[in-house]
Amino acid sequence: MASDWTRHHAEKSLERILPRIQKDLENEIFSASEEWNQFEHRLRREFPRLFQILVELYGGHYDFFFHLEALLAATARSWMTRPEDLKALDAERESRPDWFLGQEVVGGALYVDLFSDNLAGLGDHIDYFKAMGLSYLHLMPLFAVPHDDNDGGYAVSDYRAVNPELGTMAQLAEVAQRLRSEGISLVLDFVFNHTSDEHAWARAAASGNSEYQAFYHIFPDRHMPDQYERHLRDIFPTVRRGSFTWHEGMGQWVWTTFNSFQWDLNYGNPAVFRAMVEEMLFLANTGVEVLRLDAVAFIWKRLGTDCENQPEAHKIIQAFNALARMAAPALLFKSEAIVHPDEVLRYIDPWECQLSYNPMLMALLWEALATRQPRLLEIAMHNRSRIPEGCTWVNYLRCHDDIGWTFDDSDARSIGIDPGAHRHFLNEFYTGQFPGSFATGLPFQFNPANGDLRISGTLASLAGLEQAVEAEDPHLVDMAVRRIIMLRSIVMSIGGIPLIYLGEEWGLLNDYSFATDERKARDSRWVHRPKTHWEEVARWEAPGTLGRRIYDETAQLIRLRKQLRALYNGGMEVMSTQNPHLFGYIRQKNGQRLLIINNFSEHPQTMAENRLRLYGPGYRFIDHITGETHSAKAPLQIGPYQFLWLENKPA
Ligand code: OTU
């Protein structure tokens, strides 16, 4: 909360700044005085918190008040020019702020070019999204990028222009409007840790412009980079060792956490913060409803630290949050932090990011599938998955990125697992090298210095379908499909927004064509970014096909989730099944309680009847998945990879 000092100085600042902003905007205010009053109300509500953060971050800069006034003027202008239908959405969302927590919310994610060639083609598939029951759609980065390697869109050259290969900003706004009219919320990436080296700011820096060189972390020699690198981890060690790239033109070193064409922005510079706020607010007015904040962990650098998850990184996002509440109240933030689970939790807060990817759940679902024993998953979900009211997880099995084996080492040791050896086993298993592994995956970013490795591969290929189809073995195919659907059922029921990485609904296998594309060959993540061939989908839609089975069983889970009010948002409670292969949890909300049991083994399992009896009264339980009734008078028989959503229904 803002201190008295802050509140006093915030008010004094506003007294000085507001009249000047009102003068700037007098025409807009004259024609829309009610809108201005709404803004002024929100500004006065959020400003003390924002002012305190900005004083902490930038108070020492001589031009602090210049940036503050310019920031508020840009924010006011963004609100006053925000389209009317988005202002209507703002009002609706302010009256129903928990809209994204409901069990009816189901998400999808796709690459526009791989799914539909371009934005125009995407518009032809809105009925497809509706038929699946999607209410949230993440379009992978589609802004202007370098033509050659651009990290799958994550090297942005212009936040205000769509990649011409995909379409135009007008088409993006039109797609956003059509999706919104169908009840589907558009989600876009805000890649704000870095820009491409072709962004106007980077070009100006490269040409020697000192003002724009201060937008990045640029060093004349290796002295500082060497100091920093003593504590940094290599994120892309196969691209280059270390986090800095020599720029011949400038004759200087540039901080490049990721690819060498991705230049980290310097948020220690208030001009960078202000410039990125303006880009964010521009995006907000295109109709995006959730911004996926990319690589949040890396945005603040501090010598002597690993430069990840620094307190100022959280402050910057909280400042974005305050400004969005002023000028785009409907806008939500989704944190993308692939870091230690406890650090992931710290980005999740109504005043920071209301949503977050759940990388720990994703990694540990795959861990439990390999070991057939969800012990680590149980401990982790019990210890490290609680988030504040008004926030939610975004739960996923796969996405466009790799799998990193993120879990807490002390959790592993507490059940006799050596963390390092276990990560090595998981990498062996999911690259198919471990004897008996059902998985077909590729290595990503092997680091010879520490043995670190991550995994690439689609849901279906990692779950064994690729191996089974190649072996033409119907039993193995059945086991693979059961794994896919069981994992999907957990993401649908464990608490949060389930995210389907489109293509998964048909069981798409790895696409190895990337290896012959010079723009993609060095990045194995392209193996799980397959193109959707709609003529093939048409064949899969035929009854009895494998694709049909996977699609139908996925669609049934989506329909069922939407009907069960116990699945509203989060708050799962791990259940003791007393069987090492069974992962159980309870979902209890809105007067309904579900017992959800998952068999992570390819062999039938039983659960002692007394486990069920704890959740009576009476012995009768109905399984919402099959409609069957189970009695707690006998052990529960559970088939290979079977999952049950049980509700106690006294006779
Ligand atoms: C994110 O990735 C994106 O999701 C990746 O697709 C990009 O390559 C990267 O940022 C740069 O924009 O932010 O917390 O391990 O999972 O780099 C780390 C690779 C990230 C990605 C990781 C992640």
Question: What does this entry look like structurally?
Answer:
With 651 residues, the chain is α/β, with parallel strands linked by helices. It contains 25 helices and 25 strands. Strands 1-2-5-11-12-13-14-17 form an eight-stranded parallel β-barrel, surrounded by four helices. A six-stranded antiparallel sheet has the order 18-19-20-25-22-23. It has a three-stranded antiparallel sheet with strand order 7-9-8, with helices on one face. The mean pLDDT is 96. The structure holds 3-O-alpha-D-glucopyranosyl-D-fructose.
What's the arrangement of secondary structure elements?
Layout: H1 4-24, H2 26-31, H3 33-58, H4 64-80, H5 84-95, E1 107-110, H6 112-116, H7 119-122, H8 126-132, E2 136-139, E3 143-144, E4 158-162, H9 169-181, E5 185-190, E6 194-196, H10 200-206, H11 210-213, E7 218-219, H12 223-229, E8 244-247, E9 252-255, E10 262-264, H13 270-284, E11 290-293, H14 311-327, E12 332-335, H15 341-345, E13 355-357, H16 359-371, H17 375-384, E14 392-396, H18 409-413, H19 419-430, E15 442-447, E16 452-456, H20 459-462, H21 465-471, H22 474-493, E17 497-501, H23 534-540, H24 546-563, E18 573-575, E19 582-589, E20 592-599, E21 605-607, H25 609-613, E22 620-623, E23 629-631, E24 636-638, E25 643-648
Helix pairs in contact: 1-3, 1-4, 3-4, 3-14, 4-13, 13-14, 16-17, 21-22, 22-24
Bound molecules: 3-O-alpha-D-glucopyranosyl-D-fructose.
CATH architect. name of the domain at 569-648 = Sandwich
Question: Number of DSSP helices?
Answer: 25
Kindly state the mean pLDDT as a whole number?
96
CATH topology of the domain at 569-648: Immunoglobulin-like
Largest sheet geometry: 8 strands, parallel, barrel
Distance from first to last alpha carbon: 53 Å
The amount of helix comes to 40-55%
Nearest-angstrom radius of gyration?
25 Å
CATH class wording of the domain at 569-648: Mainly Beta
Q: How would you describe the shape?
A: globular
Bound molecules: 3-O-alpha-D-glucopyranosyl-D-fructose
Query: What is the number of beta strands?
Result: 25
| Lateral arrangement of strands in the main beta sheet | 1-2-5-11-12-13-14-17
Strand content: 15-25%
> What low-confidence regions span 5 or more consecutive residues with pLDDT below 50?
none
Sheet/helix structural class: alpha/beta
**CATH 4th-level superfamily of the domain at 569-648:** Golgi alpha-mannosidase II
